[in-house]
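Incident log entry.

Two folding requests arrived from the same account within the same minute. Monitoring flagged them as a possible duplicate submission, but the sequences differ. Recording both here for audit purposes.

Request one:
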Amino acid sequence: MILNLPEDLRNKLKIPLGNLVLETNPKQNKIIKEAYANAITITVGDATTEKLLNMGLTPFLQIIDGQEKRVKRPVLESDSITTNLDCKNNAGEISENSILTIKNAFESKPPIRITVDGEEDLLVLPVCLNAPENCVVMYGQPNEGLVIVHINQEIKDKVQKIVNVMK
């Protein structure tokens, strides 16, 4: 089963699922550190993952694809990774393989890195659905900043409605 992103949903997904912390916000690092300190943290995206690693913070789960804004970039090296997983996920889709890999990640020994062959952008959705409540998911909002999503039932319901449209 592959979930495809319909055209009419693209604009809706540009609306952050959580709190958008602008890149220009002088307190961005402080806000990130506070969120990280108070919850299990998951990052989706190379730039977001790199930002936390450079701050000395190691996310529980990191999802990267070796690209930023669809341009190849060096894959982040990290000695702290305990579990490495891989999946295939095409742009504009959520593959069954990626969903299963995300589910397996939550049963693996952290810190965990999933390296995606393809594109990881939409994987924020299955991450939000499968992450335990009280986790924090961080992902980049292109050219704006970083989104911090506190996982709770309201977020899971909101994301499930989006995924239902993709079926």
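Request two (distinct sequence, not a duplicate):
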Amino acid sequence: MKPKPPACSGCEFEKRGQGYVPGIGPLNAQVAFIGQGPGEREVYSGVPFHPDAPSGRVLTSWIESAGFPRETVWLDNGSRCRIQTADGSDEAPLAAVTACFKRNWGPRLHSLPYLKAVVAVGVPAGRFLFGPWASARAAGTFNTVEF
């Protein structure tokens, strides 16, 4: 399990969130996929959308069926640590996604010079990127985002 970087210091989820899973992909990626947060396998491997995890298998099949080899895209999560709610849900709170965007993945996306599209995978990332109307029913829709 990777330790949290200094950017996480002072975040309200620093101690509550389990592990730290940084984004991965080539610096010349044109497409980024942002999930809700890492699952258990991702926390222990340090790889977002781990290919052997359920979410990783699904996402890999989606991006490869769209003609993008997994190695050519940026993979990240709205919350880079795993946050479980009191009811046992893994859905990252919007506050965690917002904090992580400011501290971690937002600056990273801004540093990808060829990035043309950001795809939200899951409701928390969708709500952060596109607004409160984003829901599971909106899955498969495409919106553009200005950074």
